Amino acid sequence: MTANTFGTLFSFTTWGESHGPAIGCVVDGAPARIPLAEADIQPWLDKRRTAQSRYTTQRKESDRVEILSGVFEGATTGAPISLLIHNEDQKSKDYGDIKDKFRPGHADYTYWAKYGVRDWRGGGRASARETAMRVAAGAIARKILPPAVSIRGALVQMGPHRVDRGRWEWAEVENNPFWCPDAGAAAAWEEYLDGVRKDGSSVGAVIEVVAEGVPVGLGAPIYGKLDADIASALMSINAVKGVEIGDGFAAAALRGEENADRMRMGGDEITFLSNHAGGILGGISSGQPIVARFAVKPTSSILTPVETVDIHGQDTTISTRGRHDPCVGIRAVPVGEAMLAIVLADHWLRFRAYL
Questions:
Q1: Angle CA 338–341–55, to nearest 5
Q2: Of 50, 228, 233, 303, which one has the greatest count of Cβ atoms within 10 A?
Q3: How far apart are CA 73 and CA 204, in angstroms?
Q4: 10 vs 27: CA distance, rounded Å
């Protein structure tokens, strides 16, 4: 299995399976002499951790990270940084009834068709468990970025229900189990998702990630576009089926004068009167907030019986028991933040090399 590494100057490689003894990653390209300890990484992992509410999988993992290499006397050495998290709460027997069946909408079939084997214990590498290491790598990426850069994410749509952007409060994101910036929407989602969960089903979500304080000049024209790398990073997250930058698909409905981010002089600096482009022009950061959204499909592992086939070529039905997210998009918020941080750190190092 190839392509387990992401990034150019700042890169990381993940390894491990959902129900194996451990998961981990190796981060390469972190400059030397950056202060780094496990305590710098753990808070971000805690944001993604399971079983923090009834709205996520009840698999109980502490996700305690260990730094195995690349750090000496509290600072990076420039060598590869190896990170390890032990799996603690695997229940592989929950998947015994479906080990020969393909979950519709899941990678079960394509993994089996390509490799001739699949790890049916929780999905193996196809599990969202892998994303914990992305969050760990993202914590290191944040240490590389200039202090002025801030990266925040929020859930802006659950199923068909969207937030009211007129009630957007970033502080509210920390006050509900959905990372929702609209208190009214979060309250309504509780009842909605309880109903979905009781029905044995699942729903999708849309997450928005915003990076502020990004300097002008990150990215390169044509094949090194910053937005292309962001789209690739977000699209690589398990269950993601769509990515947009700025207004994205909504820009297709605008006229040119509406879509134009008009420019004026603000003292000695150029300012923009809007941000339809999402902070990126021609693949290069403009200095405005970088805004990206990604759509997460409903969780494939559901109790509701659905038609499928098995590895023997027989028609059958499948109902997945065990511990699963009724909306996996909830825990995708810190993952999206991490992947945006990783891309920005990579391009920041490229930008410094260019200078």
A1: 25
A2: 233
A3: 44
A4: 8
Buried b (16+ CB within 10 A) or exposed e, 176-189: bbbbbbbbebbeeb
Name residues whose C-beta falls within 8 Å of residue 228's C-beta, 6 or more positions apart in sequence: 283
Predicted confidence pLDDT, tens digits, the chain (355 residues): 899 999 999 999 999 998 889 999 999 999 999 999 999 999 999 998 765 667 776 556 789 999 999 999 999 999 999 999 999 866 666 677 788 999 999 999 999 999 998 888 778 788 888 999 999 999 999 999 999 999 999 999 999 999 999 999 999 999 999 999 999 999 999 999 999 999 999 999 999 999 999 999 999 999 999 999 999 999 999 999 999 999 999 999 999 999 999 999 988 999 999 999 999 999 999 999 999 999 999 999 888 999 999 999 999 999 987 667 899 999 999 999 999 999 999 999 999 998 7
Mark 27-46 as b/e (b = at least 16 C-beta within 10 Å). bbbbeeebebeeebbbebbe
Is the backbone of residue 200 left (phi > 0), alpha (psi -120 to 50) or beta?
left
The tokens for 308 are 């499928």
